[in-house]
């Protein structure tokens, strides 16, 4: 019987793993990619949907047999990962494997903050981590004549540490004269002492300076306790409260139920070796947002697609070697970059080595049109790669 590599999740990490493995392995090795649907969204582009620079159909990722030749695409919901049996139970049946790659991402858990779901349902809050969320929040901002927008990080970790601050800049640009005249104000609230704390204090302080230069408020060490939708008020763990007219929230993130079912990590996030992405279980690897990868300073690697893509290349080569095929040995280096859009077709760029010891070595470069264009090129490359 032929061997099978099973990949769970068709985000950037899962797609890259499947594509790379198909290039490394002979046709007789089955490569099976499972996802609940192969009509996804490029997360990198969601903030541009919020700004109105992209339409929803322009940022969809539709993986097909044409974009992943030789890969079996199985549309199914994963129910349980049975590690001892080397099998995954789905609503389309049980799939056995010889090697497993878990790339199930993270889910949004709005129920984790009292009152947050009610605020979203009432229309006084919106989020920008889904396509519907980004388009809906844009419409709410268009309708806001005056008042205060609160950009709230409701829990850590979350996908793309720069995203809430990008959102603040882009919302200011969308508001235009309403923001410039201070008819509508924007304030950011985070439980962290600085933005993007894993990148170091210099990066965080530089980003705070950019926010203040634009007239956007920054409020650190604000851990949300509850949201009062009726009174449109944020209540924090330190006993303080802040009013808002519109809440733009980064909802708490949680590991998927399927990832938790594997039993590989106490909190559901899957611990991995920083260089190899191995889980400590033979023939099982995990990549991307589903993981917790601990850096030399003890903090977790940020959840970002650029890291998932790099990890996928490493894991694909390691799977091929594990199955006995000649493939170069790869290690995850921790090098990565992210962009911080400032709303005027310019972007700052944070870049460096996150696995550097004793702490990440990251530089935030000032905003420029060139960095914005780099992000556009990255978006185009990913969309062209999968939409074939």
UniProtKB/TrEMBL annotation:
Source species taxonomy: Bacteria, Bacillati, Actinomycetota, Actinomycetes, Mycobacteriales
Protein name: Dehydrogenase/reductase
SUPFAM superfamilies per the UniProt record, alphabetical: FAD/NAD(P)-binding domain
Gene3D superfamilies (UniProt xref): FAD/NAD(P)-binding domain
GO molecular-function terms, A-Z: oxidoreductase activity
Pfam families: Pyr_redox_2
Superkingdom assignment: Bacteria
């Amino acid at each position: 019987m032929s061997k099978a590599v099973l990949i769970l999740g068709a985000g950037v990490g899962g797609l890259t793993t499947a594509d790379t493995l198909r290039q490394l392995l002979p046709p007789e090795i089955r490569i099976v990619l499972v996802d609940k649907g192969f009509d996804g969204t490029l997360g990198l582009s969601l903030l541009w949907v919020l700004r109105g620079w992209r339409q929803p159909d322009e940022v969809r990722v539709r993986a097909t047999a044409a974009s992943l030749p030789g890969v079996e695409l199985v549309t199914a919901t994963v129910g349980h990962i049975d590690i001892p049996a080397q099998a995954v139970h789905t609503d389309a049946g049980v799939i056995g494997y010889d090697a497993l790659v878990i790339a199930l991402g993270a889910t949004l858990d709005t129920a984790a903050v009292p009152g947050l779901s009610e605020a979203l349902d009432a229309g006084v809050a919106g989020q920008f981590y889904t396509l519907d969320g980004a388009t809906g929040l844009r419409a709410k901002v268009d309708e806001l004549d005056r008042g205060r927008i609160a950009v709230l990080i409701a829990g850590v970790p979350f996908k793309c540490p720069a995203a809430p601050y990008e959102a603040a800049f882009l919302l200011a640009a969308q508001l235009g004269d309403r923001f410039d005249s201070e008819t509508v104000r924007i304030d950011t609230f985070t439980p962290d002492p600085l933005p993007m704390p894993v990148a170091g204090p210099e990066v965080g302080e530089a980003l705070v300076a950019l926010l203040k230069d634009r007239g956007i408020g920054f409020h650190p060490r604000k851990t949300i306790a509850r949201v009062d939708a009726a009174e449109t008020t944020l209540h924090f763990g330190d006993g303080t409260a802040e009013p808002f007219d519109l809440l733009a929230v980064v909802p708490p993130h949680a590991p998927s139920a399927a990832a938790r079912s594997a039993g590989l990590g106490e909190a559901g996030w899957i611990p991995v070796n920083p260089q190899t992405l191995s889980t400590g279980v033979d023939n099982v690897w995990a990549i991307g947002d589903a993981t917790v990868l601990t850096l030399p300073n003890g903090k977790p690697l940020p959840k970002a697609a650029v890291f998932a893509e790099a990890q996928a290349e490493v894991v694909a080569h390691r799977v091929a070697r594990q199955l006995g095929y000649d493939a170069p040995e790869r290690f995850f280096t921790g090098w990565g970059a992210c962009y911080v859009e400032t709303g005027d077709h310019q972007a700052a760029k944070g870049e460096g080595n996150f696995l550097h010891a004793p702490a990440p070595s990251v530089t935030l470069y000032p905003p420029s049109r060139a960095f914005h264009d780099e992000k556009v090129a990255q978006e185009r490359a990913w969309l062209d790669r999968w939409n074939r």
